[in-house]
Design goal:
- The chain is built from 1 helix and 9 strands, in the order αβββββββββ.
- It has 148 residues and is mostly beta strands.
- The chain has one domain: Jelly Rolls, CATH 2.60.120.380.
- The strands form 2 sheets. It has a 5-stranded antiparallel β-sheet, with helices on one face. Strands 1-9-4-7 form a 4-stranded antiparallel β-sheet, with no helix packed on it.
- A hairpin with a 6-residue loop joins β2 and β3.
């Protein structure tokens, strides 16, 4: 199971080694568009929607050599959000980190699929980090990240 290694790796990265792009989203351009629809779309609005690619050259988790991208969003204490990560090309893995660096939640598979989803009520106000990851070192390909 990946939960413990990802928790340890992310904590280590956050408190021992800084993530190079922690303060900003991965801004590499992606010319292709995923043919994936968000699992659920709240009518109240989308906080973040990004099409991306896990590919060689991305950051690598030392615990399992899996690739990851990070995205930031501003959230408020008491706000309930849902984050969906979908890909038809790899088994997704998703995590959210608080402004103070605490790993709040992580998810591998949801609803019997290899997509990931987290629903959480935020306990503090600030800039939160979403980690887009694959289940293992072979996980590469296009994905769609939506937070609402």
């Amino acid at each position: 199971m990946k939960i413990l290694p990802l928790s340890i790796a992310l904590s280590s990265l956050l408190f021992g080694v800084s993530l190079p792009a922690m303060a900003q989203a991965n801004t590499e351009s992606n010319s292709s568009v995923l043919a994936v629809q968000p699992m659920q779309m709240a009518q109240s609005g989308v906080l973040l929607q990004e099409s991306g690619v896990l590919e060689p050259g991305d950051e690598v988790l030392e615990s399992d050599n899996s690739l990851y991208d990070i995205y930031d969003f501003d959230g408020a204490s008491g706000q309930t959000i849902t984050i969906d990560l979908e890909s038809s090309e790899f088994d997704t893995y998703l995590a959210i980190i608080s402004p103070s660096g605490e790993l709040l939640a992580e998810n591998d598979d949801t609803d019997g699929s290899t997509n990931s989803s987290i629903s959480i009520t935020l306990s503090e106000t600030g800039t939160f980090t979403i980690v887009v990851n694959g289940y293992d070192s072979t996980s590469q390909g296009e994905y769609l990240l939506t937070a609402y």
